[in-house]
Amino acid sequence: MTIKRIDTGPRMSGAVVHNGTVYLSGQVGTPGESVGDQTREVLREIDSLLAAAGTDKTRLLSATIWLADIADFSEMNSVWDAWVPKGQAPARATGESLLAAPGYKVEIIAIAAL
């Protein structure tokens, strides 16, 4: 089976395609922006990575969302809910976690089908 890596850097790839499935690395927005702005930026990057892999958000299978502060859950959800196509919501989990840098407020990891 072929493995296709997208936006590969020294430490990780933005996405990896294997056996009809697209695995996205954790996506973060610009540190210091609001959780809503960071979520919008992350979702744009997810759209871009999915397009590069040959798929789109209607094919999302699962998403894991990490928030630096669970108090931001409602604000993040308002952006997420506007982005996910009606009837196409993936399986999803959301939790609170210390993220890689203090300015990051949200990180989203996703898996999609081709």
Write a structural description:
With 114 residues, this protein is of the alpha+beta class. It has helices at 35-53, 73-83; strands at residues 3-8, 13-18, 21-24, 27-28, 60-67, 91-96, 106-113. Strands 1, 2, 3, 4, 5, 6 and 7 form a 7-stranded mixed sheet that branches. Helix 1 (35-53) packs parallel to helix 2. The chain is globular and about 40 Å long. The mean pLDDT is 98.
**Class based on secondary structure composition and strand pairing:** alpha+beta
In the predicted model, the low-confidence regions spanning at least 5 consecutive residues are none
Number of helices: 2
**Gap between N and C termini:** 15 Å
Summed over residues and divided by their number, the pLDDT gives a mean of 98
Largest pleated sheet: 7 strands, mixed
Percentage of residues in strands: 35-45%
Radius of gyration: 14 Å
Order of helices and strands: EEEEHEHEE
Quantity of strands, as a count = 7
Could you estimate the helical fraction of the residues in percent? Answer: 25-40%
| Cα shape | globular
